[in-house]
């Protein structure tokens, strides 16, 4: 019985976060309201306030769900895993409203009064963990500072999706990510490893 | 007489653009109004409407003024010129309201209904011109696609300033730009050139 109630609570929370993502993706933070999100998610006021007390809490939940939409889709190791993470992200942002809304909220914080660095920092930590492992395995040059490299990748991906959004409605984002790796790989990986990386981004399309 | 009137018109326009930058920097696009900008710039309604017909026109003028705040400060050539451009930008965004407001407006377009890719594209063209020249001089590897490299630099700088804003109020942006070049240089330039690049970002502080 308790288990059933817990399952229901988890499902309700998921429905709210998805509804919030749809509303934030469409209207941005300032154009969204808790009422509109309640209606979109099809939940009662009681259910909403059981899970989330404010629009800001809803926005944080959406922003911080980003890695969950990517990491479970990966099955590679070493440097290829980091490349694949950016490839999956480049496609998912076009079709996954939760990821897209999270990115929009993260980037628009200036205009909202929110100041939450955790989406940037969390992504960088995830990449740094994989990069450290890849460096231990000899797939990333010793001279590379993996923390700085991880933060550069987060920055470059953040900026690429904005550039791609402005010029192509994000359609050319996967190609931009491939171009980034062609420029980065010769400097960060031994030649043998760089040559072995699969840069076919369409396998995740 | 005509010349004097022209000089006055140029000065009025500059005062308006600076006032607009201050207001956009402080309040964002949605929080700004033509009235508030008029008051900040200290100009009459007639003068304002002679130069700018709408808030959107003002925003475009601020966004597209970005390169003017950087390019005249450079005196280096080749690959060093491109490095220096990113270094000057990393400091100027902290102290030049025109640049900072332009970057904010460019990045916040989602929430405003504006869709102007020209700040990204203009920056990329400026970098591409310098990169092409550097490649012709043997300072950038033949294997590097200079257009893609230019667009990656614009993307990385866009994302780095957002990451830096979130974690340090932009104070660590110059160090992030140096870290980017340490990661990029070994892959894009011949070893002799890479070793010769001056990465002391503080000379522009």
TrEMBL record, chains A, B:
Residues 10-70 form the HTH tetR-type domain. Residues 33-52 bind DNA. It comes from the Bacteria. Keywords: Aminotransferase, DNA-binding, Transcription, Transcription regulation, Transferase. Gene3D superfamilies: Tetracycline Repressor, domain 2. SUPFAM superfamilies: Homeodomain-like (SSF46689), Tetracyclin repressor-like, C-terminal domain (SSF48498). GO terms for molecular function: DNA-binding transcription factor activity; transaminase activity; transcription cis-regulatory region binding. InterPro entries: ArpA-like, CprB_TetR_C, DNA-bd_HTH_TetR-type_CS, Homeodomain-like_sf, HTH-type_TetR-like_transc_reg, HTH_TetR, Tet_transcr_reg_TetR-rel_C_sf. Pfam families: TetR_C_45, TetR_N. This is Branched-chain amino acid aminotransferase. The lineage of its organism: Bacteria, Bacillati, Actinomycetota, Actinomycetes, Kitasatosporales.
């Amino acid at each position: 019985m308790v288990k059933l109630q817990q399952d229901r609570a988890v499902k309700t929370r998921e429905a709210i976060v998805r509804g919030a993502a749809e509303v934030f993706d469409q209207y941005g933070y300032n154009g969204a309201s808790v009422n509109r999100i309640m209606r979109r998610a099809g939940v009662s006021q009681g259910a909403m306030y059981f899970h989330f007390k404010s629009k800001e809490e809803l926005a944080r939940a959406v922003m911080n769900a980003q890695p969950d939409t990517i990491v479970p889709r990966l099955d590679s190791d070493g440097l290829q895993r980091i490349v694949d993470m950016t490839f999956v992200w480049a496609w998912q942002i076009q079709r996954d409203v939760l990821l897209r809304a999270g990115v929009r909220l993260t980037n628009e914080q200036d205009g909202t009064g929110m100041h939450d660095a955790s989406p940037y920092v969390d992504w960088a930590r995830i990449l740094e963990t994989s990069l450290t492992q890849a460096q231990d395995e000899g797939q990333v040059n010793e001279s590379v500072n993996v923390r700085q490299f991880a933060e550069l990748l987060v920055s470059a991906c953040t900026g690429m999706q904005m550039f791609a959004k402005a010029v192509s409605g994000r359609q050319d984002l996967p190609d931009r990510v491939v171009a980034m790796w062609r420029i980065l790989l010769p400097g960060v990986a031994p030649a043998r490893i760089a040559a072995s990386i699969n840069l076919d981004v369409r396998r995740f399309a």
